[in-house]
Amino acid sequence: MNKLNKFFVSLAPHFEKGGKYERWYPLYEATDSFLFGCSATTKTAPHVRDSIDLKRIMITVIIALIPCVVMGLWNTGYQANLALEQLGLSAPPGWRGQVMQLIGSDSSSIISNFAHGALYFLPIYFVTLIVGSIWELLFNIIRGHEMSEAFLVTSLLFALTLPPTIPLWQVALGISFGVVFAKEVFGGVGKNFMNPALASRAFLFFAYPAQITGDTVWVGVDGITAATPLAQLAHATPGQALQQLQVTWFQSFIGTIPGSIGETSALACLIGAAILLITRIASWRVMSAMTIGALACSITLFLIGSSTNPMYEIPPHYHLVLGGFAFGLVFMATDPVSSAHTAIGQWMYGILIGVLSILIRVANPAFPEGVMLAILIGNVFAPLFDYFVIQANIKRRMLRHG
């Protein structure tokens, strides 16, 4: 490893300013940083010393996402193996079936569930990573910027928000839209006003709804339909919504339900939240405010009730474990770039997202998952919240000092 490090050091002059390959410095820097880290240090005082940097932040977020990845792999395979058992098949058709014939499609086997889930998740993730990295590298070469570890988080978040059956060409198109139009056109890392992963998913949702919504996209086996709990509630008979729900609150909390690959388990999201809060990477104000806003809105709508809309019958505690609420609360709404930055602004931002998530989910049964849109709307309003908070502080100080 030392020899490889010395080799990279010897190449540095060719990629630095004035070197023969100056244009390709972002690619060299990204490879060197990934393999060996950054050796640059400040030489003179005064300067601020801090143990945290962008690389450590992004690595911490990736570590916090590991429980969702693990649960997503297992549950995706578990749902597929259950479907195969229901159809009386030993393996799915196509290349996945050839692999699963070697392992076996047994829903009671942890190894079989993980392996089957990986056959769906890994292609999605690799396409996201490769295509998104190409776009990032292209823009960084044009601008002369360094490569950032931030895309490792964006690519993983995007892959976890997708159904396992999503066509790979749509995955490539979605991440291209998010990286280019929600991030790079605004200047790149740290300058995007909305979450690129959510923008990518929103693009696919409205451009290709048949491949990202409905009852046929959540289980990777042809001939099997499986509605998510929110879809079941949206189509339930008014007055009997919970009775017709085919899963329990505990199943929804653990995550053994149909849904996007990494969003089904509120428990996995809570583990991730603990990691982010202990390391102070994510804002506890945003998480608390979003939870308070969601509970306040859901309690109000639950008490109001409706004779025609079964979504009003969902108890408030169910909203916290259904759909992508927990995943959005922990990993999307707390994005340090696109969320509010002032303390009061974070409370306003979180409450807005929480209220809108439940309002869209309940008041519009044709669109039972409102977290994605709520967070994107919150991203748009976040700078406005910070502006009003800062202006109020300025006025207060002017009055205080005459």
Order of helices and strands: HHHHHHHHHHHHHHHHH
Low-confidence stretches: 44-49
**What is the overall pLDDT average?**
89
- Give the strand content: under 5%
Major sheet attributes: none
- Structurally, the number of domains stands at 3
Can you tell me the overall shape? globular
Rounded radius of gyration (Å): 23 Å
Alpha-beta content class: mainly alpha
Portion of residues within helices: 55-70%
Oligomer: single chain
Distance N to C terminus: 64 Å
- Helical run tally: 17
Number of strands: 0
Question: Describe it for me?
Answer:
With 402 residues, the protein is an all-alpha fold. It has three domains: 2-36, no CATH class; 64-211, no CATH class; 229-398, no CATH class. Helix content is 63%, strand content 0%. Helix 8 packs across helix 17 (371-400). The protein starts with a helix and ends with a helix.
Question: What key attributes describe this structure?
Answer:
17 helices; globular; 3 domains; 63% helix; mainly alpha; single chain; 402 residues; 0% strand
Quick description:
The chain is mainly α and 402 residues long. The chain has 17 helices and no strands. It folds into three domains: 35 residues, no CATH class; 148 residues, no CATH class; 170 residues, no CATH class.
Q: Which helices and strands, and how do they pair?
A:
Layout: H1 2-15, H2 25-36, H3 54-87, H4 95-103, H5 110-143, H6 150-160, H7 168-181, H8 196-207, H9 229-234, H10 241-244, H11 249-254, H12 266-278, H13 284-304, H14 316-319, H15 325-332, H16 343-363, H17 371-400
